[in-house]
Amino acid sequence: MKQQPNPSLINLLLREAGLVVKDHSLLLTLLIAPLLYAFFYGSIYINKEEENVKLAIVDDDQTRLSRLLQQNIDNSPMVELIHFSNLEDAKEQMYEGNCQGYMYIPRGTQTNLLSLKQSNVVLAVNAARFLPSSDILASVQAICLTVGAGVRLQFFEKSEGMTSAIAMQNVMPVSLDYRPLFNERSSYGAFLLPGLLALILQQTLLIGLSESVASERQHATIAGWLKGGASMAIWGKGLFYLILFSAYAFFFLNVNYSLLNLPMRGNGFELSLLLLLFLLTLIPMGQFIGSLFKSQLLCLQMMAFSTYPIFLITGYSWPFESLPLPMQWLSMLLPTTPFIQLYTAVVQSGASIWENPKLLLHLILLWAFYSSICYARLYSLRKRTLA
């Protein structure tokens, strides 16, 4: 009987495409989930920053200054004022969750300011919800400082007979030139979305590829896949995912970035090289993980469970240096950790991938590491199946 030739890369590519088409779980994970997640999660943060966060206000001063302060706060797109006649009602509204805090302007505020005495305005915010409380604080604090400086400026000009320039020097002896770079409006959505799109790309690839390998073991088709050798098996199956997810990466960077109004400040060619290296690292990693399971369902459950922990320990949502030391060691084994730092530096700040060679070397070493352990694992499985 004539022995069949070993499969080539193209044969394994076509074989994998056939497996995906026949497997509804793989089809959902690889062809629907990346686009669905990218548009669904992207649409949540499409406005990028909060608007009209409700703040209760009680004005016991009832002066021109207190009305000016309220008018400036209400004109801010961040805050929407809700007026109450007494402080107890304002507190009750905050406790019930109808507003995110309250502001109290006590009697005598204008009189104290005009006589250059300190006057305290109370701002209480619900810090149980971090984002609204920090946004209210930043907006109200800036407006109060501006209005207070304006009152003192008028006092020095009228009462002390100073010129506007000299009065300004007395009011603001130190002038802060605050310029947030790259995320000019300091919006949460503009910070989160680039990393979120990269995580969607990574997790859908890892889940789909590991599922495919686990399916090979579950349905006892692994011998046909490994027939040409471990290296041929890795890159024959991986070629399908490399082509598919390269297309997804191109789509995200052009379509999703445009729809979500995200800047892409870096060099497109360098970013393409970085994404290619990232995908090449994920392919053996996903196959190694999948080879540890004999059940496709169990593999899917474990990989889906890993998504949020991976996001948390890579240093994107929380500074890497502040992670516990064991978490830092674990994070260093994930390709996401060096990739996300390089990727955000390129797309958000326009950096070059060559400006941080340590991160690039880290990603290359992880590619070599996962390629080696994947090869060793598949070589062992091949010996067992052919024995």
From TrEMBL:
Transmembrane parts of this sequence: 26-46, 188-209, 239-259, 271-290, 297-317, 359-378
Q: How does it sit in the membrane?
A: Multi-pass membrane protein
- Is rRNA-binding given among the entry's keywords? no
Intracellular or extracellular location(s): Cell membrane
Q: Superkingdom, according to UniProt?
A: Bacteria
Q: Which UniProt keywords apply?
A: Cell membrane, Membrane, Transmembrane, Transmembrane helix
Protease as a keyword of this entry, yes or no, is no
Family annotation (Pfam families)? ABC2_membrane_3
InterPro entries in alphabetical order? ABC-2_transporter_component, ABC2_TM
**Residue limits of the ABC-2 type transporter transmembrane domain?**
25-369
Q: Which PANTHER family match?
A: ABC TRANSPORTER PERMEASE, MEMBRANE COMPONENT OF ABC TRANSPORTER YHHJ-RELATED
Q: What is this protein called?
A: ABC transporter permease
